[in-house]
Design goal:
This protein is of the alpha+beta class. The protein has a domain of about 130 residues. Helices cover about 50% and strands about 15% of the residues. It contains ten helices and six strands. The strands form three sheets. The protein has a two-stranded antiparallel sheet. The chain has a two-stranded antiparallel ribbon with strand order 3-4. A two-stranded antiparallel ribbon has the order 5-6. α1 packs across α8, α2 crosses α4 and α4 runs parallel beside α8. The longest helix is centred in the last third of the chain and has 27 residues.
Length: about 230
């Protein structure tokens, strides 16, 4: 894993801005130089991919994840914050195969998700995913789909992270899926836009070039901005 400079963050954001979210996640991993080629990253189990993204997020933006969500019943605003380290307490390496009723299944991968990304029928996409990760040619009932889906979630627990919420004003309780890849990309984009605003302000004030401004340390750049805005 390599540390990213301000220039690296801008290049990453620029390269990924037009990509599908699944491809952005792979681009982030490839940029971090984790020792595997881009093509191989698409075949990582989702739990392994998400664990790597969580570690990168902790390295680049800190361990605390803070945000807010609207209650689906009363629309009240709930703020939340937790240490992402608790997510890494779960195994991120799924065993090679899962056996259910005599049939073997592997963990889902980014490549699997990409193959159904354009499907509008969620049920048909779920059945297709299950067929892809089954080692034998099989068809599944909706009941089998639900059962095997639950077993696959247990098999690769970091493939999907569910956060439990409780709204104090109305008492509603529900769970929401945390898409760590989308969350991390939003932070990368926010940082890149902030850097470009800094470049614009300082270039207009002092005539400096983008590389000169990006090379400034965070405290020094912040102080120059404070003086420009005074």
């Amino acid at each position: 894993m390599r540390a990213l400079t301000n220039r690296d963050f801008l290049d990453l954001w620029e390269r990924g801005s037009a990509l599908h979210p699944l491809d952005r996640a792979l681009l982030v991993l490839a940029t971090a130089d984790l020792g595997e080629p881009y093509e191989a990253l698409a075949d990582w189990p989702l739990g392994r991919r998400n664990a790597a993204l969580i570690r990168l997020r902790r390295e680049w933006f800190g361990s605390a994840l803070t945000g807010w969500i609207s209650c689906p019943r009363c629309s009240g605003r709930l703020e939340f914050s937790f240490d992402t380290g608790i997510l890494l307490d779960q195994p991120d390496e799924a065993a090679s195969e899962l056996s259910v009723d005599g049939r073997s299944f592997r963990a889902l991968t980014t490549r699997d998700l990409a193959s159904v990304a354009a499907d509008s029928d969620e049920s048909a996409a779920a059945h297709r995913l299950l067929r892809q990760c089954c080692s034998e040619k099989s068809e599944f009932t909706d009941e089998e789909l639900e059962l095997i889906g639950e077993r696959l979630a247990e098999h690769d627990p970091l493939a999907e992270t569910l956060l439990d919420f409780s709204c104090a004003p109305c008492g509603h309780r529900w769970a929401e899926s945390l898409d760590i890849a989308a969350w991390l990309w939003a932070e990368i984009e926010a940082r890149s836009r902030r850097l470009l605003r800094d470049v614009h302000a300082l270039a207009a004030a002092y005539g400096w070039t983008e590389p000169e401004i990006l090379a400034l340390s965070e405290p020094r750049r912040a102080l120059y901005l404070e003086m420009v805005q005074a």
